Amino acid sequence: RWLPLLSQVRDAGCRLVLVGDRHQQGAVSGPGGLFAHLADEAAERGELATIKTNYRALDASDGQAWDAIREGRSADALSHYRAQGRVRLALSADEARAEAVAHWLQDTIEGKTSLIVATGSNREIDEINKACQAARVAVGQIAADGPSLTITSKDPRKGYEREETLRVGDRVALTHTSYLDTAGDRQRSTRSRVHNGESLTIAGIDGSRVTLRRSSGSLVEVSDDRVNRLRLDYACSSLRSQGRTVDRVRVMAHPQTDQEAGYVAVTRAREGSWVYGAIRELAEWPDGVPYDTVIDDAMVALAAAFSRSRPDELSIVAAERAREAAPSSSEAEIVPLPVRKDEVEEPGQGSGPAEVIDLPLRTLEPWPQDPWAESGRDLDLPMTMER
After folding, report:
1. Which of 37, 221, 272, 296 has the fewest Cβ atoms nearer than 10 Å?
2. Percent of the chain beyond pLDDT 90?
3. Closest CA to 352 of 68, 66, 80, 83
4. Contact present, 103 and 135 (Cβ < 8 Å)
């Protein structure tokens, strides 16, 4: 996507400003890391602007906890949450999920916007979504005997099939950006672009046609095969949560949680974030060991997980590192490039402490293999970064 964007910027003679947070999660497929690479180059020249004011966290101490996770001091952040009773460790993962759902439901009863961010598998996310839906039915937020529609979707890469029953009042999201008909427009003369991950509320179900209410209040419709692009949206992956802001966040943490996922998850909330985990996943509990000792061991393991950084690496940097590590013999084996990807959904856009890189591209020559360029000659690209 960079090539056509940069070509348009160059042809228009304008300036491209990059804004982002390198400590959040990167691309879902293929090596990433381009923003961090450009930020490093700008920083070396003293030409990197940093936005430091935190406008999301209502409590300044929460903002300091976010800084601690971003800087690799996750133990300090978790100590802050624990002191406020916001680290909840149950015996098993099932019990931890049940407690997170119960607290999420209480948030909704209080009129708060709340989201469960799970750093585990897609299966876990689906289980939590169904539990949240059942909880809403139990308290009368959703009618159990109202119109419903059962949908299925498959992930051929993982051999996994999702089946969900949608009801009027459910909160859902699309798994693909789509152009949807305006509700009631049977001529299909107007359509709205609904982005992947946008949170929607089901306003009506008529056969295979689902009417969705957007946050603006406008109504759109999805029907036929496209309904299978919907999924319940009470819980989501950390990657899908990027760009969202809610009052409270309930984070399901696991030993495989890393710094980037944990940082994204806890920074979605204005009022506060709660971290849930399972003692049996995080620590051993031999006979005779006191409960307090096991809790401390679990906290140490949780802090270690939140401190483990696995950032994306720029492909050319990975290639250079692979070449340096390869044997010098002419018979040296090809070293595959490392690609780290989690069992997560499509990315959104993050927000938070950000770095701004200003790229004046008006002096750039055509890029190699540029479909808009007249030739594809080798180039020396003068990418001078300014504040």
Report:
1. 296
2. 49
3. 66
4. no
